[in-house]
Each structure stands twice: as C-alpha cells, then as structure tokens.
Design goal:
The chain has no helices and 6 strands. It is mainly beta. The strands form 2 sheets. The chain has a 3-stranded antiparallel sheet with strand order 2-1-6, with no helix packed on it. Strands 3-4-5 form a 3-stranded antiparallel sheet, with no helix packed on it. Strand 3 and strand 4 form a beta hairpin. The protein is globular and about 30 Å long. The relative contact order is 0.37. Bound molecules: zinc ion (ZN). Zinc ion (ZN) binds next to loops.
Length: 57
C-alpha cells in the first residue's frame, strides 16, 4: 500500500522538509532537531504545520 508524503514546517524554526506519512521511526527537523513526526503504526502523528501533501505514485 502506497503512502503519501507531507511537506511539514517545523514549529520551532519553520524549516520545511518532506516526511513520509507512515514513518517507522521518529523524524527530527534537520535544522534544529525538533521531532516533527512520531511513528504510530499507521499514519504518523505530525507536529508542526503540513504545508503540502505529495501523493506517492
Ligand atoms: Zn526546526
């Protein structure tokens, strides 16, 4: 089953990075290290603002 990718703006530094919606491990902001996605076994809990969604093909 394919998943989507989100462009997430970090709540701390507003850096935007692409995050898979079903992450297997925590994803941290590459700039400040703030955790922006928590694995849940399904769709990740996203911290910060989702600015864009990219559908996987
Ligand atoms: Zn950040």
């Amino acid at each position: 089953m394919a998943g989507n990718f989100y462009a997430v703006a970090c709540p701390d530094c507003e850096n935007e990075q692409i995050v898979f919606e079903k992450v297997a491990s925590e994803v941290s902001c590459v700039v400040c290290g703030h955790t922006i996605a928590h694995p849940t076994g399904g769709t990740a809990t996203i911290e910060g603002e989702i600015t864009d969604a990219v559908e996987a093909r």
